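Structure tokens please, single chain.
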Amino acid sequence: MMEAYAHNHLKNLFQKDSFDWPHNLTLSRLIGRSLRRKDKSYIQLQIGELENSWLGVLVPLCLNSKGIVLVLTERQRLRLLNFELPRLQREGLNLSIWESATPPTDSQLWLLDHRSFFEAYQNDHLKAKQLIIPEIEFFSSRLREVMSIKVSSSDWDTLRRAYPAASSALIEVYERLSKRLFTMVTAIDGTVRTDFNDFFALSDLLGVLGDSPTPWPDVLKATKKGWASWAELDHKLLDWYWHFQPLEPLEDLKKFFQETSYIMLSGFNQHDLLENQFRSLFGPFDVAVKLGGPSIQHHEPLQVFAPRRQPLPNTEYFAEYLLDQCRRLILGRQGLTIILLDDKFLLRQLTTELAAEFGKRVILESTAPESNGVICCHASWWLTYQEQLPAPDQLIIGLLPIPSLEIPLIAARVEAHKQRGQDWFRDLLLPELLNFFPQLVLPIRKCQGRLAILDGRIRSRSWGERIFKVLEPWTPLERLLPD
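Here you go.
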């Protein structure tokens, strides 16, 4: 059987070298069994970094990769091509990779990114394929990004050139929309949520005109499906972009996943809620397991400074408290400090006040810090650039990065939850926070740094315990001591 052969190959590898994660043997058997039986499998890997589990995934694929699709991010793809494949080749294991928009005609492993995956789904190329999707916890958000539509002023021009007889009517609709959007916006270069009324006149016009150039047919479909839409304004050029994104992209693929065999790999702890969400969408799993524990380097408890009786973010003295605590945390530290604050006004205020005291050490969202620098940034910026930065000495979370209702997409998703009578905070916003929180603190955990959470809600709200749970293992830091 494939799982037995994979187990033996991996066991031989283990005899020659030692690897970070000791549960790859079990994982290889699970992967081999699921591929052989064409199961619907959900495997939660209780592991710090998914990279440590590559051998358990790839060794069974070296034995049989026919009809199998591996969906990876660009970072994962580079890791596979530049590190994992050469390592396998040195041990006499070969894995044929196929990278193309169309499926392979032979037994190669079909490698797709998320955009190529969605295009292959639209072109009906994924029938009878088996899917392997690592980091399934981010699959929905990554799919939403590739499904998104962005309409610029040049797209309006293309539409007018396609139908010159309707040019004046299109200009009138565009100018009326522009005037209303720039009147509604509350900040320079801000965003304004749009609704069906904004699109009503245009949809009627497009319906009369007939076939339209890209992206207008997709826009029509998006509005009919109730996608979130908003305008991004550029005051300097008096221009704007119209954005469309699906509220829940996996809803569109529901039937596909119900009929397809797959292996979903989740990379972090505490994803019971995520597992239940997938189960409710795609039906029961043939295999659902939690595998192993973290590697030795991740057994070290994370030091967490989160004092009791901290002020709540809506109190008038919270900004002063935040500044005072950040001063104390920065003083005497010789390494890099990251401060996360998802509030534009507070972020700029805190950056300015800290720079007045610590000078050029303090910077705002820059990837060129001093060795003992302080980077003030949004959580999304930190997630994007953390791999380009030196390992931080400490991470300070001023405000818990709960998705904001000021973001049009989040507001639309919350509204949809309200209409269904669901608890929009505990069923949407809190799971979103718990989903990416381990990734926020991973660099600190790897270098055994210090985490400080200065948002009083983590102690005063019952759901704060959920956050502490995804941080496990951790230990409380009761007092700040000098290095």
